Fold each of these.
Amino acid sequence: MTSKKWALILGASSGFGAGAARRFATEGYDVIGIHLDRKSTRHMAEAVQEDVRKSGQEAVFFNINAADPLKIESTLDAIHEHFTGAEGENTIIALMHSLAFGTLLPFITADMKKVMRPKQLTMTTEVMANSLIYWVQGLIKRGMMSSGGRIIAMTSSGSRRCIPDYGAVSSAKAALESHVRQLSLELAPFNITANAVCAGVTDTDALRKIPINKKLARVAIDRNPHHRLGTVEEVADTIVGLCSPAFRWINGNTIHCDGGEDAVAVGNLLSDQAEGSFPPS
């Protein structure tokens, strides 16, 4: 009987999610992609699906709001039905949470008409943190994730550091890391691990939406021992690597994948030259 291993990626059409989908496919994983794209950006999800299939793997994508409880349930039902109707044993080995949709507004500013509203704060936390719990609950309830499974959630240094207009995302990332630690405890009886991956500043669509993205990139290049930004592909290598049986004892951690960027407090004073550059226009 054939056995197929699947990666379920939340936020699969761009950034780290897209990079991981492509990398998982090259390692023999079939990919379930969850994304939310309008007509103008749907081509990105289609490109990821095409690349997965070119690697010889199956791609099943759903264009939905990944934080809507009803959509989560119906989508998981559809995936379960797909597994039931397929030949051989189908199981989800990896669940990657890479949802980057939140409100970038200050909590307090001179014009209090332009501050974060309760609904915006709640939405950001629901999408970028709490949705992880809902998907994991749904998978466990349906028995769709096997022993040896991996939960991997993308976080950022904003969970510990302040960035202008990033307050809602910062609190969501802090909550996400807390959720990962709790899941590492509660999933242990199922032999499933949960970890967060904290990438350094990386050129993604999510970064470019931050108003001071160019300044963040310049500071990151200066601080990083390699004097460049990391790439989506380097982060994807880490994500897929964590799914190896060799890393089964890593659990409940926030793992930095940044070339040393987070370890350096200030720019490298030994060099005046930064080899990397940042392209946003």
Note: The longest strand covers residues 145-155.
Amino acid sequence: MKTLYLVANWKSNKTVLEAKDWIHQLKISKKPDTLHIILCAPFTLLTVLKEEIQKANLPIVLGAQTVSSFSSGAYTGEVSAQMLQGLVEYALIGHSERRRYFHENDETLSKKVMEAKKYGIKCIYGVEGIDQVIPVGTDMVLYEPPSAIGSGVVGNTEEVNTLCQKMSSLNNEIPFLYGGSVTEVTVKDFISKPSIFGVGVGGASLNPMQFAQLIDAMAAYE
């Protein structure tokens, strides 16, 4: 059985109390060793989530939703990779919303990957298509076509698999994940394809019951 990844991105959502409630309500009935669950949460929630996940003994690791392209120092408002060391295992870099709303370009994103790797943080790199550069040091790629993000429109699994296979072959066989309106109903169609090694979800991760159903669906895959 291939290794699978489930990446949850809460985006700009949840207070501390809501995050705690989510952890307390999440019930994971089964998680094989081949399934890795990564929760990418806002910086404000990472410390409390780490504590609550440990208390609840949940098989979840944390990821940051971005990381500064600068080292620690006089960069007011930035959160450096060094500050995240020991708090997260992953960083989501290059998400389409970061590119669109915060004008992050390939040069900036490459610097972010370099900073994360310097402090042992694994990189989940977001791309929207085959023409985007994937920096050296990327650990896995999250392919999210703009038409599928938050739209409820799910990509054609055969087409996605072909595109992921092509992009992976051009980038040292990096594992590719698919993101964009995936649910517990559609997830099996994606992870059953040979070149798709998991999924990234946004809205489907905000409700702990729906997220648990997604985990169950992926755990049942053989």
Note: The domain at 4-219 is CATH 3.20.20.70 (TIM Barrel).
